[in-house]
Amino acid sequence: MDERSGEIKALLAEWAELWGDPSLSDGVRVEFSTRMRRAIGRCSPGRRLIRLNSQLLLDEHRALLREALCHEFAHLAAYQLYGEGLRPHGEEWAGLQRRAGFDPEKKFSLPSQEATRRSPGKLRYSHRCPVCQTVYTARRPVSYWRCARCLDAGLDGRLIITAAPTQPPQDV
């Protein structure tokens, strides 16, 4: 893991330099979590913390690790460079991604995550963030859920819950 942490620090420093502020990478913590099931990464800009799915440490996911790390670090950098009121995947963030050589993808997942995702026909409730349009789904309404990205940005993070069809629409 020491080799990986050195590589990660070097990448953060390289991107910080590329984005015009070498101090961006100072004090950034990168953690790997075995508990992340649906997300590949999360960024908490105020805490200068990037949490990534531990599956990214596998050799077959090395390229995806770089992309996910850049994706999350760009969130932190956009927060530092441009201030708080940004859209999570807005133009500022997308510009940082492009300058680092990545397409500004909003979501991507591990191949194993795509295979285990539930089909939309089995989900009954959609929990949508009215600010960033992130959607979470569940078999029941979960009123205490909040949008993590909006909470990190200092917003309320409340979600709008709507019933979703239990069966996909049939073509007639």
Can you walk through the features of this model?
This protein has 172 residues and is α+β, with helices and mostly antiparallel strands. It has two domains: 2-114, Metalloproteases ("zincins"), catalytic domain (Zincin-like), CATH 3.30.2010.10; 118-163, no CATH class. It is built from five helices and six strands, in the order αβββαααββαβ. The protein has helices at 2-18, 62-82, 91-99, 111-116, 148-152; strands spanning 29-33, 41-44, 49-53, 125-128, 135-138, 160-163. A hairpin with a 4-residue loop joins β2 (41-44) and β3 (49-53). α1 (2-18) crosses α2 (62-82) and α2 (62-82) packs across α3. The model is unreliable at 115-121 (pLDDT under 50).
- Given the structure, what is the number of helices? 5
Instruction: Determine the strand fraction and express it as a percent band.
Output: 15-25%
CATH class category label of the largest domain: Alpha Beta
Order of SSEs, N→C? Answer: HEEEHHHEEHE
Q: Quickly give the CATH architecture of the largest domain.
A: 2-Layer Sandwich
> What is CATH's topology name of the largest domain?
Zincin-like
Report low-confidence residues grouped into runs of 5 or more. Answer: 115-121
Largest sheet, in brief, is: 3 strands, mixed
Mean pLDDT: 85
Tally of domains: 2
CATH H-level superfamily of the largest domain? Metalloproteases ("zincins"), catalytic domain
Structural class: alpha+beta
Distance between the termini: 55 Å
Shape: globular
Arrangement of strands in the largest sheet:
1-3-2
Gyration radius (Cα, Å) is 17 Å
Residue share in helices? 25-40%
Overall number of strands: 6
